[in-house]
Design goal:
Chain lengths: 328, 422
């Protein structure tokens, strides 16, 4: 694989993570509001996103591995520019995981309630930190022309606005996606409560996607021409989110738009980022020889991973029932 | 403290925390796999309980192990970008294989194992856990290949200050990777063994307290009673595991001196590295010898039938000694890393040149935040592990049907009815 191939591979891993882990983030944000105080209802909500945890978060670990091996310079520069965000990402990630694994291990109500609060906060902070880092990447690797970038307050404003917008978009997108996964897998009453929360989140999601699209156009005006593609993607997502809201308002629960809106919204920030930073990141890839040497073991691994994960999803993704494992 | 010191200290603390969980994951994994295989093979209920009890401890430990590992992976780029600039092409290769091939698969298999419990056929379900163990070991080995390259760089060439692989075979068969992996594997099995033995001994010792009638009669408990079958089984399994581990750790520990210059390493920090070496020299063989003696005592169950006072004293000692392999494991890791200084990659890159330009304040802040978070979570995790270990095989959640799990403690009705909802 050449640098472009590795770049697409990295984007695919990040999009996969957003799709799978986004369900857990959304479920974590919504477990308290959707399920109320009842512990069994909370556990059922968590059980509906539980399989996504172990099988999802590895996608980001793998992406970090690819970043480290094939795009070491990008990682070093991005981490230096977004230092506090990386630290926040790590903290939110470990707290989220610990909250899910540990909450149900002891019976004390205060122990469980405490971890539920930690889970909700961390599930908000994790996509926010990730989105913020995507925003930093837009500004750093967007290919904006250096003269334009160094001149004037307009660009300085974008360096703050873009990370904030993408952070908020990632948070709301995870909420929409996770809520719809709960609605799809959990029993009736929980599903209805989850759908109500999703309905509320869809308009902010559309608004944030539109604002991010405008920011992408702003970057494009500074020379990041592929920002136009990102703007198109984000506007499309905003339209889908509004369409989904329309269906929910009509009382429809089974519609193709509702089946797709979660995944599309949650993957959009990554896809838009791939469009904006693609050329810059690919240009900063490791030497061709290194990429060439890494290709055979990684491709072999990908084949194995795809087979095993496909099998896992076939086994695990069924509506909750008597044979569902409730561990979290 | 300079930014370099703060970055090193942060990495050392986070790696130390991570390693404590790795010891249990790699040490307990094969034992759970054997328990489950025997359950699948014989269908005996005690093996099911053993699988579920130890599997649950394995999972709670694994949860923080993966979290700590993630933090560690991001540390390299955050604080040691020079390492990626100079040797990313060499050092990155085993790490990308680790994340893509080993860890990706390991986590997927483990997710299937936990959440496919009631869905998959027993044989497939058992095979999945063996795959978790194999990929876990592969993951550890690839990390040791990366670490071994830092200690004993081979199979590469430097062109224009950038390293690239010339001989992948040499990189993999590097004694600093292979011998040290076997040594670490031994240490992990010792830790797993101590955990199995320590927890089982705790339960066997309080066996008299468990049966009120026995207590009332003033009789010592019967470790040979059927209610203790799980703990006798676990104790024997732990002794076998720990003894094999002691042998591997000792043998491959000495074999490592084929590439490690012990005197130079000790000279680097005499107090720390010297003490660590001395302690490992003592503990390794001692674990093997005492493990062998205790295994001999398993003949005709002497270990469970001997004079009660002696037996209980022995059990108390075995429980008390549970932290030993963890303390020694951390010392071993420190000896390896400190002994390599001042180099990040021996002869190629100095640590001070590998560190990025994050300010001292930033590195110290992230140290406090990240290490504080990890320590707090680790303590919570070990609290849970202790409570679960003490609770024994009552109310196991792993592998229980959902109706049983969701039944609230104070109320006997099922809060939710599954199936037929839609």
């Amino acid at each position: 694989m050449n640098a472009v191939g590795w770049g697409l591979f990295l984007a695919a891993l990040l999009a996969g993570w957003s799709l799978l882990d986004g369900a857990v983030q959304g479920g974590g944000q919504l477990a308290r509001p959707v399920a109320g105080r009842d512990d069994a209802r909370r556990r059922t909500t968590l059980a509906s996103v539980a399989p996504y945890l172990l099988l999802g978060e590895v996608w980001l670990v793998a992406a970090a591995g690819v970043l480290l091996a094939a795009f070491g310079h990008v990682e070093a520069e991005l981490w230096a520019a977004g230092y506090p965000l990386v630290v926040a990402l790590m903290c939110a990630w470990v707290v989220r995981d610990a909250a899910l694994w540990l909450r149900s291990r002891l019976d004390a109500p205060r122990w469980r309630a405490g971890w539920d609060v930690a889970l909700e906060v961390a599930s908000l902070a994790l996509p926010a930190a990730f989105g913020g880092l995507l925003g930093v990447a837009w500004v750093r690797f967007g290919g904006t022309d250096a003269d334009a970038a160094s001149s004037g307050p307009a660009f300085d404003a974008l360096t703050v606005v873009v990370p904030v917008l993408l952070a908020l978009l990632c948070v709301v997108a995870a909420r929409v996606h996770g809520g719809l996964v709960v609605a799809q897998r959990a029993p009736g009453a929980l599903a209805a409560a989850a759908r109500r929360r999703v309905r509320v989140a869809l308009v902010p999601a559309a608004g944030l996607a539109t604002a991010a699209a405008l920011a992408a156009l702003g970057l494009a005006s500074f020379g990041a021409t592929t920002g136009l593609v990102a703007a198109g993607v984000l506007l499309g997502v905003a339209a889908v989110a509004l369409a989904a809201r329309f269906e929910l308002d009509r009382g429809v629960v089974a519609h193709p738009v509702l089946a797709w809106v979660g995944g599309v919204t949650v993957a959009a920030p990554v896809i838009a980022t791939a469009a904006v930073v693609g050329p810059g990141v690919v240009g900063a890839a490791a030497p061709a020889q290194v990429l060439h040497d890494l290709t055979p073991p990684v491709l072999a691994a990908v084949v194995a991973v795809v087979v095993v994960q496909a099998f896992a999803w076939r086994v695990l993704l069924r509506p909750l029932g008597p044979r569902t494992v409730v561990f979290f | 403290m300079t930014a370099v010191d703060a970055a090193r200290l942060q990495f050392a603390l986070l790696a130390g925390i991570h390693f404590l969980f790795v010891l249990v994951t790699l040490g307990l994994g094969p034992v759970v796999a054997v328990f489950q295989t025997r359950w699948a093979h014989t269908g005996r209920e005690v093996f099911e309980r053993a699988t579920r009890f130890w599997g649950q401890l394995y999972l709670v430990n694994y949860a923080l192990g993966i979290a700590a590992g993630i933090v560690l992976e991001l540390q390299l780029g955050l604080h040691f970008p020079g390492l990626l600039d100079v040797a990313g092409g060499v050092f990155g290769a085993p790490l990308v294989v680790e994340t893509m091939a080993a860890f990706f698969l390991e986590s997927t298999f483990l997710g299937l194992w936990v959440f496919g419990w009631h869905v998959l056929p027993r044989a497939v379900h058992t095979a999945l856990f063996w795959l978790v163990v194999v990929t876990g070991y592969l993951s550890a080995f690839t990390v040791m290949v990366a670490n071994g390259f830092l200690r004993n760089p081979v199979g590469f060439e430097l062109t224009g200050g950038v390293a690239r692989i010339t001989d992948a075979g040499a990189l993999i068969m590097n004694p600093a990777a292979f011998l040290s992996s076997m040594h670490v594997l031994g240490a992990c099995l010792v830790a797993g063994g101590f955990l199995l033995v320590g927890v089982s001994a705790w339960h066997l010792r309080r066996t008299s307290a468990r049966l009120p009638a026995v207590v009332a009669a003033g009789l010592p408990g019967d470790a040979m009673g059927p209610e203790n079958e799980l703990w006798r089984l676990s104790m024997r399994a732990g002794l076998v595991t720990g003894t094999i581990g002691g042998l591997l750790a000792t043998g491959f520990g000495y074999a490592q001196f084929s590439y490690v210059d012990a005197e130079a390493a000790v000279a680097q920090a005499p107090a720390l590295v010297g003490i660590a070496y001395a302690l490992m020299d003592m503990v390794g063989p001692l674990v093997f010898l005492s493990g062998a003696v205790l295994l001999l005592l398993c003949a005709r169950n002497a270990l469970f039938r001997m004079w009660p006072h002696l037996r209980n004293g022995l059990y108390a000692t075995l429980t008390f000694l549970l932290p030993v392999p963890f303390v020694v494991g951390i010392l071993g890791w420190l000896a390896r890393e400190v002994g390599r200084q001042p180099w990040a990659i021996v002869g190629v890159l100095r640590t001070e040149d590998a560190v990025g330009d994050a300010s001292r304040t930033a590195v110290l802040t992230s140290l406090v935040v990240l290490v504080g978070t990890m320590v707090a979570l680790a303590i919570a995790d070990w609290t849970v592990l202790t409570r679960l270990a003490r609770r024994g095989d009552a109310r196991l959640v792993l592998g229980a049907p959902p109706t049983e799990v969701l039944r609230s403690a104070d109320d006997d009705t099922h809060v939710l009815t599954f199936g037929g909802v839609r």
